[in-house]
Amino acid sequence: MVEPELYEVTVSNEKxxxxxxxxxxxxRGIERLLATKTYAxxxxxxxxxxxxxSHAHTTCYCQTVEKVFxxxxxxxxxxxxxxxxxxxxxxxxxxxxALLFHTLGEKExxxxxxDAREEIMDLIELMCGNRVHYGINAxxxxxxxxxxxxxxxxxxxxxxxxxLSGYIARATRELAPKLSGIGPLPREKALALGVVGPVLxxxxxxxxxxxxxxxxxxxxxxxxxxxxxxxDVLSRTLVRVKETFESIEIIRQLxxxxxSGNIAAEVGxxxxxxxxxxxxxxxxxxxxxxxxxxxxxxPERVKIRTPTYMNERSLPExxxxxxxxxxxxxxxxxxxxxxxxNRLTLVDQRTGKKHQVELSELRRGx
Amino acid sequence: MRQVNVYRLDVGSCNGCDIEVFSAxxxxxxxxxxxxxxxxxxxxxxxLIVTGVxxxxxxxxxxxxxxxxxxxxxAIAVGACALSGEAFExxxxxxxxxxxxxxxxxxxxxxxxxxxxIVEALVDVLKLGSKAWEVPGGFRGMPNIDAEKxxxxxxxxxxxxxxxxxxxxxxxxxxxxxxxxxxISCASCEEACPEEAVELGAERPRAxxxxxxxxxxAKIELRRCSACGSTFAxxxxxxxxxxxxxxxxxxxxxxxxxxxxxxxxxxNCRNLPxxxxxxxxxxxxLDLTA
Lengths: 366, 290
Prior knowledge:
The complex is a heterodimer. Chain A is of the alpha+beta class. Chain A contains 14 helices and nine strands. In chain A, the strands form three sheets. A four-stranded mixed beta sheet of chain A has the order 2-1-8-9. In chain A, strands 5-6-7 form a three-stranded antiparallel beta sheet. Chain A has a two-stranded antiparallel ribbon with strand order 3-4.
């Protein structure tokens, strides 16, 4: 899972020589716990793997379990799932751009985006009753419907978000010189390391589960996979900023032909021995679930592969040879879903001496 | 105005609470005007916000960070994980509760608590006045239980994903207790309750100084076995079951008392030869009417 981590960075003359990533700080044994809870309880547990991609996790889990049970959710449920999915991507990408500007010391942009993002959060709270863990997914469909009033408010909010995305795009253009050429990850390396999501797309590879293996209602919408060739922090920023425009467009299209009908299908008995794999395009990249049943109402095994786990491996490649002061920016650029990686160990290559510092000190140029 | 510096420490959370702590510092909540600021170094801070459940790897880190705070040290546990370990309690990699490791001054329940609740808690703990916001319709708060409607059947206990609902039999009573410290407001209990006795509240949960004190409880009377006198099932559940049988099979209404008598026996007495014989005769008669 995504977690607070410790980076051991070896430095020579302010240049990064090597990085060692120490993981496991927030390891909560979720895969083991999932094999002790019923399928329905598992949805809420999966939701709590990650606060940013909670809906991606539940959608992937529910879709994989639905394959095991051979249930097809109704069209309207698929549309609601997809709308929530894109709203989640929007709030996640906006928060990411805010954090990027924060790392760059652009306080004004940071405050503006954080404040504007609250509008989506209010909307999500109104639609789902909670801002972070939507709790809207269930096996066989969704638990809550969208009223006409909510759809009206959503359309209205999308207009505001378009202008927010425009603001971010302009700010990114202004700051492009500070981002260009930093933390390079060429196409071949990206493919060899198996990175996913916006990091992969920023290295010139057109890969998006929404397009390659459409799920929920993605087959019904027309959108473009955003690709950049630079392979640097600037490209990663541009991919995400452009994706916010695409997400808004996807939601508009879904609202235009929103089907009527049921929002949940009847779920039958659990099958004896069956295993399935499902994947979705979470805000950070490809998320994979494996579910195996054993005939009881508790799964035999659930295996999860999260996107940050893949993207993290590219960090040593991006960081080697870069300036130490660029480290926070490069770490930020892969959108690690980590909340308290606020420290790292610096190793002086000549003396072998280690000392721990806070990331914020690096920003101040210590 | 004195400056309050807050340091946020994630000891094993899903980031949900961290996002909301972060959002609490958006301008609309006005913390900056009150002199409250988020800082990146614990030795500059006097308030610690802890999110998540302590894991084997973060347990010692939590104590270290707390000791680096500037006195007077204040610690606020935010979110169900930091209060009670939520669904992760008992996992092999979870190691103790936050308040077993450091002294906690206030607890904010919720999964995750909204920034409004976090701001309310901060303002309250720091004695900076009070703040309140309107709650949108459809907000999922903590579950309330209607003791009149509850039959003590335990359907909610079965479905709760975090084990927040406890059922204990004591003397003549069954206690059904909703522990808010573990509750994630998922509404599974509300959906599962056959009597519509559970309903999620529309209020944002407020911070508390005693995590174990917050909750809702219903006490249900237990029936004593008409033969041996031991308690065996909640009275309202037996009554509801009998009603349902007669609702579905109107023809049985003439046997109401006989069915009630059979249902009034505990598991052990029901299996005595003479009672099995009586029950078989009853079943035979019921078969004939149907």
